[in-house]
User: Which sequence fits this backbone?
């Protein structure tokens, strides 16, 4: 076995002995390399006590290197490949996880956010290339029709503009985002929290196959690994750090989606949130996240998302604007005169100028201007608003909303 | 006529000669008092050219003092009273308008944000007292069912907690907020942009009568004054500065409601915005305001509003939380073991400890703990999750949403 194969095997063995993201293991690999780290741990030389017992417990169930070799064979049969930092397609940006520290960590899993040791990948695209220009769209599994609609639109719009749509392959928002990207004929990547041979949830199996055909299925766990609960949180750090930004579409009060957004913020990525009806339980977590994180950005569509993640000067969102009104161009006197005109009937210029607070000479000048713009009509009994047919009148007629 | 009556008459005359909020007039009144200011303007001694022509034009239509005297008589017949800074019930907080400067002023009306010279009031409450503990709830006239529901809830909830609900008496959100407050038997104030004898819109006439019975109808304009378009913007500065904060419920892209919130922010009041579906045109302005103003606060209900405007330490909103789970209390080892258990059937402690990555002795200790908490059951063939009847199982069973 070549030295390189040794290193690859060791990385696989290490992710089996200790969950991905374990800082102690990452530090050892950084210092001694994967092979030496594996030997060290197997010889019981773990720095942390809990890591020692974990390694011992896992080892009791089998030989780490043998398990790793078998995993590589299974992956081969599955048409999946192992990607490590030694490979050209390794996504460099995940290295930023080495610096990720979440505030007020209560569970150990929130503290174990080290970079991945390796990825299992199914699909033809080079992983790094696929993630280079990517945005994550994540959210509730129990999504509403509203949330699924928005997620699909985002997935479609981003893919249409050659952005890779990354998500977790779950029911609800994740699936909608993946499908939107697929519909646009774009690139989408599902980052799973289990082995690629047993994608979770099974109900999305067909979706996963479609994704693998044109995009990528990715996981840090070897074939056969189960979607144990903590693994979703461990996986979320990769979705956050592997993309330029994370968009949360719907999230209940206690949601993993906001955990991904939290990891995005603390990895100096853009965390974006789509608001929803305050009457919807599926938006409670989204709104709370916006209230708690001043760095989080409210986005209402793909234009806003592109504004956040796009290169400066490009992909800018147009500011929301109401219909431009003909009266916008008028100066204060002209507008005052227009607004002083009665809804029905005409008014003499003397009364009109008094009512508008504009002197007579100015009033006459402005009124003839308004006449040319066919906003007012001159009659024997004075001036009147132009007939309803003209759209201008509506503008002059409607008082501002409060 | 007493000196005081002279001053009151002068203030009324001044608001007829020049629209309320005119800075030049405010400065003169501050320096010379209302009576001298009136004489000065009538003698053509206006500082600004446009003010000169405005005064001249209005004077041409009648004698300012005579018009003012007639307005006072009309108000008397109407059961309305004039309130000036000389009166005890004057709301002191509107003085902050003297410092209000809006950025990038395009129309003159946006620059004329001086404090009011006087108020016309209908209703028995002292104006200052009514506005002391008040919140403004404003929004679109073309409100959706969602917006009206939220505005009614806010009006009701605030009134229920003895906060005065202030709005503009318009259709849609304004009316819903007023009605919510009335339903709670609370105090509500409608600030109008026209004379109290011809409230606009006419369709809310019945509502205005109900408000006047238990709350207040307020206007800067004398009886007979019409709801000219610019007056709504002029009025909005009073809603913003007269309250502790302004809540925008629904606002289209070009909305007067966000103009009120803008005036609130620049008057150092709290500007709050209720988000909505991004698919709704009636929320476009609300979301854009949140994106443009970092000081604006997203609120989802009365608890959040109270948190913003309430005295520090009181009226605090509870943080949105998901259901507390029994597993929250567990340490890492116990949780790992629980999560390593198969969905169905039992598992031997050796395999279990290996799968969970917990050494055997710890595993046995934690498992007996879990057994006491009736989260797991011991069987001849090992340990299993407690039967479905127990809610705990659902928690252990459901993987985190992505």
Assistant:
């Amino acid at each position: 076995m070549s030295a390189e194969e040794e290193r690859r095997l060791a990385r696989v063995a290490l992710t089996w002995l200790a969950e991905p993201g374990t800082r102690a293991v990452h530090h050892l690999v950084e210092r001694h390399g994967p092979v030496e780290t594996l030997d060290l741990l197997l010889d019981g030389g773990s720095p942390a006590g809990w890591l020692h017992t974990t390694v011992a417990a896992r080892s009791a169930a089998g030989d780490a290197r043998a398990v790793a070799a078998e995993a590589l064979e299974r992956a081969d049969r599955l048409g999946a490949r192992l990607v490590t930092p030694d490979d050209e397609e390794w996504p460099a940006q995940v290295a930023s996880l080495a610096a990720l520290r979440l505030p007020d960590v209560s569970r150990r899993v929130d503290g174990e956010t080290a970079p991945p040791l390796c990825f299992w990948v199914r699909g033809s695209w080079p992983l790094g290339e696929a993630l280079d220009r990517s945005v994550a769209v994540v959210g509730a599994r129990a999504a509403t029709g509203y949330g699924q609609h928005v997620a699909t639109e985002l997935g479609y719009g981003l893919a249409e503009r050659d952005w890779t749509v990354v998500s977790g392959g779950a029911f609800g928002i994740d699936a909608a985002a993946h499908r939107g990207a697929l519909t646009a004929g774009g690139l989408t990547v599902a980052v799973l929290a289990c082995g690629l041979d047993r994608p979770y949830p099974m109900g999305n199996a067909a979706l996963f196959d479609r994704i693998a055909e044109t995009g990528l299925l990715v996981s840090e766990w070897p074939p056969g690994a189960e979607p144990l609960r903590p693994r979703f949180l461990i996986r979320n750090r990769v979705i956050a750090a592997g993309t330029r930004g994370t968009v949360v579409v719907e999230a209940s009060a206690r949601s993993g989606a906001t955990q991904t957004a939290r990891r995005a913020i603390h990895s100096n990525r853009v965390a974006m949130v789509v608001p929803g009806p305050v009457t919807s339980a599926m938006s409670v977590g989204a709104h709370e996240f916006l209230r708690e994180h001043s760095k989080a950005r409210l986005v209402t569509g793909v234009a806003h998302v592109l504004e956040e993640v796009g290169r400066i000067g490009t992909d800018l969102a147009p500011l929301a604007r109401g219909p431009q009104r003909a009266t916008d161009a008028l100066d204060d006197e002209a507008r005052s005169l227009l607004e002083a005109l009665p809804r029905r009937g005409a008014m003499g210029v003397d009364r009109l100028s008094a009512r508008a607070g504009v002197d007579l000479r100015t009033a006459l000048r402005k009124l003839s201007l308004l006449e040319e713009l066919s906003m007012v009509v001159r009659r024997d009994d004075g001036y009147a608003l132009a007939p309803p047919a003209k759209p201008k009148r509506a503008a002059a007629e409607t008082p501002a909303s409060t």
